[in-house]
Design brief:
23 helices; 727 residues; 25% strand; 6 domains; Beta-Lactamase; alpha+beta; Rossmann fold; flat; five-stranded antiparallel β-sheet
Length: 727
């Protein structure tokens, strides 16, 4: 062994340590460095920091004893360990070997030769064990990811190992049967196929130089169904050529066999059809064609087997875009349908309608493509005549006053536009043909056109009419009135769209709508202002004039009673009625005259309103205005909120028979939220939503883009919610 070794000696007896060091130096081993440790803790530090090739370990140490010492060192599993043991601990050393140690030496019973041999053997054994571990791990991983059931048959001992996952998944047997011997496997082979194994056995005995075999046969699975399998095996022989062991893999080919049977059925059907039929493998190579293909293309079955169809039948005038479309669909294992120009064996061109369909097995793997070719040469000739006659209408197409687009339903690419489209959108025709219809849509609307195309593809006849938002080359939004119809364009499904720019019309309508809304707000504002003014005048008149007249009348009654000595019960009743009228007018004036609302005066006015109206009626009010700040709110908005609260409280007092009211006001950055809830008798919403009071609330709120909601049920109270949008 020429590789320099680093050896860790774990020994707390100085004499034993000195002796072992001397013996190591006497061996022919190339010892680069000897590390010493008197405890497990010291040994672990060395192993963590320095590269060590071998550990000589005494099991009896100051901080550890016996197998615990080995278990601590064994966590460094890449380093081989030799146990140093006395006679009294020899049995413990043997136990350490069963746990993974490479060997053991009895102290005082070995010399430099035995030490040399033991070290070399231990290092080599550790290396082989590590390679075996890696090999087993690879085998375990491979057996999990492959679809084949991997097996290993010891013929001498008649024991078998089979990969569990595939055994259970493919053959539907419980896992505890996976390692049953070969007699079990033979018992589930189809009776008609058991002779295959006799043939394999005879062939391997007679031809001792053969080490491989492959066979197909049927196996009965755990659900009682026969499955077709392909079995491949490799033989391990002794020097005399006798087979000792077989290693192999069993692949379930049931679906493949079914597909082959289906293919044979399709071939029988396709043979009689007037259309050409081609069947290709997953690599696109021809497996079979029918007689109609031979008549159409001029190629026989023998001439095309193994070739790709396009390499034989496509030529210089075959459309590049059609070839790209076919490659794209085939690469995605998807169906295809298109018209394409092909060439006869003699060189003459002909047109076909090509329709292909992939066929998959149960695992989703492609088995083959089944394609039908229909000769449409005559129809294309007629189309060409029509096309020439249609060229005269090209000028009409280009001079139409509306934009015209033709775009493909498969890839959404713009295929054709007229001159008006270039004028309106700002793109040249060349630029248009590099775009898709998605490029004309706003990002948030692109999914709509994708869904639209999918829907159109599902119907041979499809049309629509509507307004779409488009964007021109400058990024400006255009409102387009678009009428669309599905057409066939050069053999591909497409949409022809006629688009009229109605942007100015839409903008004018939007402006008119804004003006209308503005006018409505101004009318509402004027109405409410007039109401407020009238209420103010009525309130002042009642308070300043009518109340003064009533107060004077009350004074004169008092003088009449006191100075003249008149004590008539009617006078007392008249004086009481005058007092009641004065108080009623004072309360009514308080309601009609808007309070001064500036800054924090709003909350004071609100408290006054609650005290004069709700509090006087004995109604409990729970008020939450902690989140309401009047800073930034103009006085008119504050007055509007005040009047809405006043109106709703009056409604509650008059109609609700409530005992409690909850009032909440919240002011956020650009919104104000008002909520008034009571526990009264409630009502049916349909009876009040069109009432004057409710409309008045909505009109006041609308001045500030407010949204009003009322929810109420009979017997469950009422809740008014208003949200104001403010700048």
């Amino acid at each position: 062994m020429t590789t320099p070794l680093s050896i860790l000696l774990v020994e707390d007896n100085p004499g034993d340590e000195f002796l072992i060091r001397e013996l190591l130096l006497l061996t022919p081993l190339h010892v680069r460095q000897i590390f010493s440790a008197t405890s497990i803790a010291d040994a672990e530090k060395i192993l963590e920091q320095d590269p060590v090739d071998l550990v000589l370990l005494d099991l009896t140490l100051s901080d550890s004893f016996g197998l615990d010492s080995f278990k601590a060192i064994s966590r460094f599993d890449s380093v081989p360990v030799i146990i140093l043991s006395g006679l009294d601990s020899a049995e413990m050393a043997v136990q350490a070997i069963t746990l993974g140690a490479q060997d053991f030496l009895l102290k005082g019973e070995f010399d430099e030769k035995i030490l040399d041999k033991t070290i070399r053997y231990s290092i080599e054994r550790k290396k082989n064990l590590e390679e075996l571990r890696i090999s087993n791990e690879r085998y375990r991983i491979v057996s999990k990811v492959t679809n084949d059931m991997v097996w290993d048959w010891d013929i001498v001992g008649n024991t078998v190992f089979r990969s569990e996952e595939q055994f259970v998944r493919q053959f539907k047997y419980p896992a505890d049967k996976k390692d049953m011997n070969q007699d079990f496997w033979l018992s589930i082979v189809h009776p008609d196929d058991r002779k295959i194994f006799d043939r394999i056995k005879k062939n391997l005995q007679e031809n001792t130089h053969e080490n491989m075999f492959t066979e197909e046969y049927r196996i009965l699975d755990g659900e009682g169904n026969y499955r077709f399998v392909n079995d491949r095996g490799y033989l391990i022989r002794n020097e005399a050529g006798k087979v000792l062991r077989m290693i192999g893999a069993t692949h379930d080919i049931t679906e493949k066999r079914k597909a082959e049977q289906e293919l044979r059925k399709l071939s029988l059907i396709a043979k009689e059809t007037v259309n050409a039929v081609i069947i290709t493998d997953p690599d696109e190579k021809i497996q079979w064609v029918n007689d109609a293909f031979e008549r159409l293309s001029g190629y026989t079955l023998q001439e095309v087997i193994g070739f790709k169809p396009g390499s034989l039948t496509q030529g210089p005038e075959t459309s590049i875009s059609q070839k790209q479309y076919l490659r794209k669909q085939i690469s995605k294992n998807e169906a295809f349908s298109c018209e394409i120009l092909n060439y006869h064996k003699s060189g003459s061109a002909y047109w076909i309608l090509l329709q292909g369909q992939p066929v998959f097995d149960t695992d989703g793997s492609l088995l083959y493509y089944f394609a039908i070719q229909t000769d449409v040469t005559e129809r294309k000739r007629v189309d060409e005549i029509l096309k020439k006659s249609e060229e005269k209408y090209r000028d009409l197409f280009d001079t139409m006053p509306a934009s015209i687009f033709i775009w493909g339903l498969n890839d959404l690419k713009i295929l054709e536009v007229n001159q008006k489209a270039s004028e309106q959108y700002g793109y040249s025709k060349k630029e248009f043909l590099d775009l898709t219809t998605l490029d004309l849509r706003l990002p948030e609307d692109q999914y709509k056109i994708i869904d639209y195309a999918k829907t159109a593809l599902q119907h041979n006849y499809f049309s629509s009419n509507g307004v779409w938002k488009h964007i021109n080359k400058s990024g400006e939004v255009m409102f387009m009135q678009i009428s669309s119809n599905r057409i066939d364009y050069n053999g591909l499904p497409a949409m022809m769209a006629i688009a009229t720019d109605i942007t100015d019309k839409i903008k004018l309508e939007q402006k008119l709508e804004e003006e209308r809304e503005k006018s409505e707000i101004e009318i509402k504002q004027a109405t409410i202002t007039a109401q407020e003014k009238a209420q103010q005048e009525i309130g002042r008149e009642l308070h300043d004039n009518v109340n003064q007249v009533l107060a004077s009348s009350k004074l004169f009654l008092g003088l009449l009673r006191n100075n003249r000595g008149v004590h008539d019960p009617y006078l007392n009743e008249a004086e009481s009625l005058l007092t009641l009228a004065i108080n009623e007018i004072r309360d009514l004036s308080h309601i009609l005259i808007a309070p001064g609302i500036q800054g924090s005066e709003f909350l004071k006015a609100l408290d006054g309103l609650l005290n004069h109206t709700v509090g006087a009626a004995g109604l409990e009010v729970e008020k939450n205005v902690n989140g309401f700040l009047t800073e930034g709110l103009d006085e008119q908005l504050q007055l509007t909120i005040y009047r809405i609260i006043q109106e709703q409280l009056n409604n509650i007092l008059k109609h609700a028979d409530a005992g409690k009211v909850w009032l909440t006001l919240i002011h956020e950055t650009n919104k104000v939220y008002l909520r008034i809830k009571d526990n009264g008798k409630g009502f049916n919403l349909t009876d009040v939503t069109d009432g004057v009071g409710f409309l008045n609330l909505k009109n006041r709120a609308s001045l500030y883009h407010g949204e009003v909601q009322i929810s109420s049920y009979t017997g469950k109270g009422c809740e008014l919610s208003v949200s104001f949008h403010i700048k």
